[in-house]
Specification:
This protein is of the alpha/beta class. A seven-stranded parallel sheet has the order 3-4-2-5-10-1-11, with helices on both faces. It contains 27 helices and 18 strands. Bound molecules: iron/sulfur cluster (SF4). Iron/sulfur cluster binds at residues 111-114, 166, 171-173, 176, 178-179, 182, 184.
């Protein structure tokens, strides 16, 4: 096997495979530190600035170690990129015999059993959905992986997607007639046998939960787990360690009960009537709340709304359905599956209303046509550590934004990482010459009524200096929509607005269109890579503090204060610093990129905490004068 230096040096193995390869000392050092950590069995938390080349810097030592490896990254798209682009190069450079596999969540794989049911049930489908379904049928006989993304045309929110994929709830498992040919289980089996598996954080978190509960596993028991885009882990872990049940699951249950009656017990009239009554109570619960999506504190909502009247009515109607299912479940697999699910959901709601557990935050989410009853742990560190221990692996956490002023305290505290090595590699880009940070101090504070108009005026001026080529990033959808209207009327540059087309399509249009301006919220603050002149200006409207009204954040801040911490300085400011680093990180993606970052929230200069935020960013020249922005571009 080669050494790290033999792989990364100027004339090393990678240089023979990559055209225009340039040796990056930070990249080689990162690979060496990871290999050393892995050899010592010491976990490592490390930040690698944009342009370090961290993917290869962890893949090379991972494969050189000859141990079993899980690489977990942020999205399916990144998984595919790693598997199709970076991994083959590294395997070739090392002449490695390792077996590798990419594994996604079950909603990415065709469910043959449900496809059959979808074909039988296809009468009411629109022309478009019918033709999509026909394409799926054709493709299903030739695909080797069953990965629906191979087809391209089935979007995540497509109507037919849930009808041809499975969930943990509706999968029939070993009693499924298609079990031997099942893509979900075939892919999982292959992953368990592979030396290196590329997965995503959602899968890994789900696997952690499965292992702890003793219900099996999906991923192999690895010696090394690499968490790429690790800044996402605390938030995702919080979501995955939460429990949630909502009207969506209840309505799906009713729909499956109807199918079960049709297939297995056409004569049970009582169940049809009870389900209809139950369905009405579900809709009545949803009607307690308006149309707006929101996150609400459970206790306050229970005390102040009709939920306390409607939810008990729902349980009453639910009990009738449950009683009938209990006596009929033996008549078929589908009915039995419905009964098992119905029991679990009922118990969840019942205990949710009663619980006094202070370690978990009860909160309601109103999203679209549904309402969800959620329970989220106040502190995720202990659960994360317990679940991670199940793997007995060396963990590597890496991202371009984990540290605040070279300290990992905030990240490590959230995940309970106590005895880890830490390292920071700065970006090899020259921020002193490639960029400039414009902080206007003459704008009103964001909570002032005059802020919006002043922000729009300044944005128009900045866009004229850069001739478009810009991202304008917002901290809320409301601000995005308001600005979209104002800017569309005021500028002639082509505007792309989040929500008007799928994210990937917007990005591809932005890249191809000269002088384009893209307006986006959180999903454009990270994971977006636009090189060259196309993106020369990034404008941020406000400092990305999470909404103080959020019930989960409120509970966490209270908890933090009770522990004696300064909730604002030690929790909210570091969170904002990491988000800001991500947002600003969109601008410079290459040694030849040039551009200006703008933060229109004057608190970054006027408040004491502002210094911490500025210091967390790559060091770059700062100006308060818009003339300097003009000069930068001319
Ligand atoms: S085992 Fe589950 S996922 Fe596989 S085909 Fe059957 S129902 Fe679908």
């Amino acid at each position: 096997m080669k050494t790290v230096a033999e792989v990364f040096s100027d004339s090393g193995a990678l240089s023979e495979l990559i055209e225009g390869y340039q040796h990056r000392p930070e990249q080689q050092d990162m690979a060496e530190k990871i290999l050393s950590a892995v050899n010592q069995g010491q976990s490592l938390v490390c930040e690698a600035g944009t342009g370090t080349g961290k993917t290869m810097a962890y893949l090379v030592p991972a494969l050189l170690s000859r141990q079993k490896v899980i690489v977990s990254t942020g999205t399916r798209h990144l998984q595919d990129q790693l598997y199709q682009k970076d991994l083959p190069l590294v395997l070739e450079a090392l002449a490695s015999p390792a077996t590798t596999m990419v594994l996604k969540g079950r909603s990415n794989y065709l469910c043959l059993q449900r496809l059959d049911a979808a074909i039988n049930d296809s009468k009411g489908l629109s022309y478009q959905n019918m033709s999509d379904l026909q394409e799926v049928v054709q493709w299903s006989s030739s695909t080797k992986t069953g990965d629906i993304n191979e087809l391209g045309m089935i979007e995540d929110n497509s109507v037919i997607r849930p009808t041809i994929t499975s969930t943990t709830e509706n999968c029939l498992g070993q009693s499924c007639p298609e079990f031997d040919a099942c893509f979900v289980f075939k892919n999982r089996k292959k992953a368990l046998e592979s030396d290196l598996v590329i997965t995503n954080h959602h899968m890994l978190m789900a696997d952690m939960g499965l292992r702890e509960s003793g219900f099996g596993e999906v991923l192999p028991l690895a010696d090394i787990i690499i968490f790429d885009e690790a800044h996402q882990i605390p938030e995702l872990a919080s979501t995955y360690f939460s429990k949630s049940m909502g009207t969506r699951q209840l309505l799906e249950l009713i729909s499956d009960i109807k199918t079960a009656i049709r297939e297995e017990a056409k004569d049970i009239q009582g169940l049809i009537e009870a389900s209809a009554k139950f369905e009405k109570t579900i809709r009545d619960v949803r009607l307690v709340f308006g149309r707006r999506d929101q996150r609400l504190n459970w206790k306050e909502t229970w005390e102040k709304t009709n939920l306390s009247t409607e939810l008990p009515k729902l349980l009453e109607a639910y009990q009738v359905v449950l009683d009938i299912l209990e006596t009929t479940s033996e008549r078929g697999k589908l009915l039995d599956n419905c009964w098992q699910r119905a029991k679990a959901h009922y118990n969840y709601i019942d205990s949710y209303m009663e619980t006094k557990n202070e370690d978990s935050i009860r909160w309601l989410e109103i999203r679209g046509n549904h309402i969800y009853l959620n329970k989220t742990p106040v502190n995720i560190a202990e659960t994360f550590q317990q679940r991670l221990k199940e793997y007995d692996a060396t963990s590597i956490f890496t991202s371009a934004s984990l540290a605040i002023n070279n300290s990992f305290d905030h990240f490590n505290r959230q995940l309970g990482l106590e005895e880890c090595l830490t390292e920071v590699w700065s970006s090899p880009f020259n921020y002193q010459t490639q960029t400039c940070l414009y902080l206007p101090v003459d704008l009103p504070e964001p909570n002032q009524p005059t802020f919006f108009d002043a922000f729009i005026d300044r944005t128009i001026k900045l866009l004229s200096h850069s001739e478009g080529h810009a991202f304008v990033l917002f901290t809320s959808h409301a601000a995005l929509n308001k600005a979209a209207k104002a800017l569309s009327e005021a500028i002639d540059y082509p505007i792309f607005i989040q929500g008007r087309a799928p994210r990937s399509e917007l990005l591809s249009q932005f890249r191809q269109t000269k002088h384009a301006v893209l307006l986006g919220t959180s999903s454009f603050w990270e994971g977006v890579d636009v090189k060259g002149e196309a993106l020369s200006l990034v404008i941020i409207d406000k400092l990305p503090f999470a909404s103080p009204d959020d019930p989960v954040l409120q509970a966490r801040l209270n908890y933090f204060s009770k522990q004696g911490g300064n909730a604002f300085m030690d929790y909210q400011v570091p969170q904002a610093a990491i988000a800001l680093k991500q947002g600003i990180g969109r601008l410079i993606r290459d040694v030849n990129d040039r551009g200006v970052c703008v933060i229109c929230d004057k608190r970054i200069v006027s408040k004491a905490y502002g210094k911490r935020l500025i210091n967390a960013l790559p060091a770059m020249p700062i100006t308060h004068d818009i003339e300097d922005v003009y000069n930068f571009f001319h």
